[in-house]
Amino acid sequence: MNLKSTLINSIVFLCICFSNISYAAINNNPLLDNFIQKMVTEHDFQEKSLRKIFNAANIKQSILKAMSRPAEGGHTPWHKYRKIFLNSSRINGGVKFWQQNKTTLAAVEKKYGVPAQIIVAIIGVETQYGGNTGSYKVLDALSTLAFEYPRRSAFFTNELEHFLLLCREENMNPLHPKGSYAGAMGLPQFMPSSYRNFAADFEADQKRDIWKNPADAIESVANYFVEHGWKTGDKVIVQTASIDKKYQAFITKGLKPDITLAELQTANFVMPAYLDLQAKAKLFEFEHLDGNKLWLGLDNFYTITRYNHSKLYAMAVYQLSKAISAKANIR
pLDDT value at position 75? Predict the structure, then answer.
């Protein structure tokens, strides 16, 4: 065999190997078999139809790789994380999105009590106002994570169940919807269970389109927030300081407010006078380049973390909302 033929064969071999590594069809997987039987028994799906759907699904190694490096990892300092979302592109994009949808945002804010800037910031953080809603087939993403990601298999199997039910309810072909590597969809990046439970139909046209209809997406975000405890008119998070250097004893695990402001005040924390001292808060420490700063997350901050269970995410949404609001008012 000459050198040219050897090189060609080597390239072909590498391409085949790379293809196999990148994706693989679902074959003879007992988890899939059990899932299909459940869908048939509990939801009256046809086994033949489901087999046909999953024959077109692929296991994606790129999805498994992406799951190992989420941006909200606990070791990312705030001053690095904020740069991803607190930039001129997202701020200006937020102002533009607000202007384009101001009538809808005003109506939704009045109905639900969720500030327009918070809704805009959520969509900005999630998809850059619809600019990046994801390129993975939702079926591939959920199948990969349900059947090849043991650590969270139960969660994604449940979401796959919701996805198939959603497709039947909304008359969608399961092979068509695209989303993130985790199966989140549309402008607000709803998982299938959230789509089914919280997506809204703004125009009452019997269709909840969170991909191409900003009005549906906007109301869906507001509905999600209200259903997760948003309190109209309340603060989200406020900065504090501690006279006592032993403040770290008050930084506990979790995200839910767990100590009254009165207790924190007694422990030498400084806070705004307008706050209700009987309200509960969560003490957070955020890493800045010029030193760490303390913040008190209130109930509405906790509500934002129900969208993504990360204090960094919630702070990015809050600060982006403030920046967008300030820029919009200037204009």
Answer: 76
